[in-house]
Amino acid sequence: MPGREYPDGYPSLAAFMASDPDRTALIFKRFDRLTARTLLYLESELAELQAQLDAFDEEDRGSPCARNWTTYKEKWQIYPQRAKLIEDIQKNMMEYKRLLSYESVLASQPAPDRRMLKAFLLGFHHGPPRVEGSFPILGGKSSFLYDDINDLMILRPPGRSDRLSTFLRDFLGFIFVKKLPEGRPDISGLGYASESRIELFVLYLSTVLAALLLIGAIIVLYKVSSPDLKLGLVGLFTVLFAASVGLLTNARLAEIFGATAAYAAVLVVFISGEIGGSSRP
Length: 281
Description:
The chain has helices at 10-19, 32-59, 69-78, 80-106, 114-124, 163-171, 195-223, 227-248, 253-278; strands at residues 27-29, 152-154. It has 281 residues and is mainly alpha-helical. It has two domains: 32-106; 159-281, no CATH class. Helix 7 runs antiparallel to helix 8 (227-248), helix 7 (195-223) packs parallel to helix 9 (253-278) and helix 8 (227-248) packs antiparallel against helix 9 (253-278). The model has no long low-confidence stretch (mean pLDDT 85). Keywords: Membrane, Transmembrane, Transmembrane helix.
């Protein structure tokens, strides 16, 4: 069953963004400049309100209303502008803190990766951007929504960010293409590489490689009789292990050093016993 055709514009763009089963097409504009400006306006307004409150506090210095809440509220009946000031402070403070809280969450959302953004722009522009015959799905000022790459965020980034997973997505994604459910829009030139399939492949590969580098190394070292050759093979297997950890995982440099040292220690202990045993009469 072919994918449903949605009217061009907001319907087709929304369907396109929701069509990715892994939800990696949910790319939106941050509006960082507008957010910063809104927060600056609220800051300035709160600063003015605070100055007015400080002035009222100076007027109340030594007065009972400076220490008694009931007396302070009674003064609101005489000076309603004070009640209005407190109300404005509370309203603006709540809005300011709410925006700060939201922005702290959005600031942690990563930007879309190069592969996902390229695919998204291909769908947004009905083809490669800035190519004859292509045009944005949205018109007016909305046609420039996705021009500033640094002002974009993705709500759900890809699951794994190790080098192998990134390589598979960028260059071998066609191997992991997943058929879309019925009713999803079918956009020419775009395929959907399944994140779950990539993660499963990397998991299997890393498990097999880890077993080979340990068991295989022990078998090879056991079969080799020359001590010098054994030491050389230990160095080779250690380099291969360090490369596999750096390629298949998100381990930091210190973690790579620690894992490599532990792996090398196992091999050294093994060949030490072999060399020591072979040198006995």
